[in-house]
């Protein structure tokens, strides 16, 4: 009997401690926070050519970029894509034209173009900006779906 009488208050204390711990709210700091990991996964902000898939990274390389400003101020790009494999591949490429600060220009995102590359072949893909604000660019290549 004595054993069960000491057991009940201990159980009640344990239950109370669990309930109180579950109801406590953690203290959070308030105010502004700085962004974390700003240089992770930001390849599109730093590189002119970005390959979206591992298979594309294995199969394709960019062997050259020709950049030219047209008389009306628009930017024209000719991109040489080269198939590194001994099989035919199909990819899709688009270009995002950006201003001097690296922000996309109005209408700067071109539609994806399908590019078919024969075995060890090289193809040129052309992109033309819609306005004269483009100074930088990012070419994006993905596996054709």
Notes on the structure:
With 145 residues, the chain is α+β, with helices and mostly antiparallel strands. It has a domain at 47-143: Sandwich (Immunoglobulin-like), CATH 2.60.40.3230. It is 22% helix and 40% strand. It is built from three helices and eight strands, in the order H-H-E-H-E-E-E-E-E-E-E. The protein has helices at residues 2-23, 43-46, 54-59, and strands spanning 49-51, 60-69, 75-83, 89-98, 104-109, 113-117, 122-128, 136-143. A hairpin with a 5-residue loop joins strand 4 and strand 5. It is elongated. The N and C termini lie far apart (75 Å). The model has no long low-confidence stretch (mean pLDDT 84).
List the helices and strands and how they pair.
Blueprint: H1 2-23, H2 43-46, E1 49-51, H3 54-59, E2 60-69, E3 75-83, E4 89-98, E5 104-109, E6 113-117, E7 122-128, E8 136-143
Parallel strand pairs: 1-8
Antiparallel strand pairs: 2-3, 3-7, 4-5, 4-6, 4-8
Keywords:
145 residues, single chain, alpha+beta, Immunoglobulin-like, 22% helix
Q: What characteristic shape results from the CA principal axes? A: elongated
Number of strands: 8
Q: Over all CA atoms, what is the radius of gyration?
A: 29 Å
Assigned CATH architecture of the domain at 47-143: Sandwich
- The N- and C-terminal alpha carbons lie at a distance of 75 Å
**Number of helical stretches of at least 4 residues:** 3
Point out poorly predicted stretches: none
* CATH C-level name of the domain at 47-143: Mainly Beta
CATH fold type of the domain at 47-143: Immunoglobulin-like
Helices and strands, in N-to-C order?
A: HHEHEEEEEEE
Q: What's the average pLDDT?
A: 84
Largest sheet: 5 strands, mixed
Helix-strand makeup class? alpha+beta
The percentage of residues in β strands lies in 35-45%
Helix content estimate: 10-25%
């Amino acid at each position: 009997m004595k054993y069960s009488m000491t057991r009940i208050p201990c159980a009640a204390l344990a239950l109370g401690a669990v309930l109180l711990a579950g109801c406590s709210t953690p203290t959070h700091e308030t105010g502004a926070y700085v962004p974390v990991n700003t240089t992770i996964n930001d390849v599109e902000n730093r590189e002119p050519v970005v390959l979206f898939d591992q298979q594309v990274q294995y199969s394709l390389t960019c062997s050259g970029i020709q950049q030219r400003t047209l008389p009306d101020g628009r930017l024209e790009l000719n991109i040489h894509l080269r198939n590194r494999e001994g099989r035919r591949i199909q990819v899709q490429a688009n270009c995002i034209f950006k201003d001097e600060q690296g922000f996309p220009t109005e209408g700067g995102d071109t539609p994806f173009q399908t590019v078919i590359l024969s075995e060890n072949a090289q193809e040129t893909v052309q992109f033309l900006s819609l306005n004269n604000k483009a100074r930088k660019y990012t070419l994006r290549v993905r596996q054709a779906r």
